Amino acid sequence: MGRVARAHGIRGQIVVNPETDFVEDRFKTGQALLIGPADRVRAYEVRTVRFYQGRPIVGLEGVETMNDAEALAGADVWLPESEVAPLPQGTYYRHDLVGCEAYLTKGTRLGRITSVEGSIDRSYLVVDEHLMIPLVAGIVVAVDIAARRVTVDPPEGLLDLNPPGRK
Same domain, yes or no, for 79 and 125? Predict the structure, then answer.
């Protein structure tokens, strides 16, 4: 859902850089959040929330001081899986795309999608940690989550911008 940007103030609040289309629905008082890397998340409950310039400023149960909040800086913010709602057709959660195989429309395998980076309106697929493909309808032409396959039709020269071995 986002990433902790930094601590805010002296009362243990954090500023979150949201990576969700549903910011106001996801960050609300009483909401359970998981914070940390995927293999070591810790559960928190939202105690307070307000929004400033589109970013939530969140107070969490158990995070009482600026030092507590600073320790969370840079951590990922997740929603418990039980609370993840289905999306409308043609939209996908980033975590659903990670691990899919990317193919050209001709059938050539490009590699495995290792992450989805960028803001909501300027996301791109990262394939094998080096190839960046804009996540836009004209380039990503088919997504089959069940088959773990994403088909792309990149414009000429795009694949040459990030050859293997160059990060």
Answer: no
Number of H helices, E strands in the chain: 3, 12
Count of CA atoms in the C-beta half-sphere (13 A) of 116? 23
Is residue 38 in a domain?
yes
What are the backbone dihedrals phi and psi of residue 96, each rounded to the nearest 5 degrees, phi first? -70, -30
CB within 8 A of 8, min separation 6: which ones? 14, 15, 57, 69
Pair (11, 58) in one structural domain: yes
Mean pLDDT computed over 105-122: 90
Total structural domains within the chain:
2
Mind listing the pLDDT tens digit for each residue in 8-37?
999 999 999 998 878 888 899 999 999 998
Judged on CB neighbours under 10 Å (0-12, 13-18, 19+), 97 is buried
| 89 part of a folded domain | no
Q: Is residue 35 part of a domain?
A: yes
Per-residue CA distances from 61 to 13, 48, 88, 119 (Å): 10, 9, 32, 28
Report which secondary-structure segment, H or E, holds 142: strand 140-144
Give the pLDDT confidence score for residue 165 in this predicted structure. 55
Residues whose CB is less than 8 angstroms from the CB of residue 42 and which lie 6 or more positions away in sequence, other chains included? 34, 35, 36
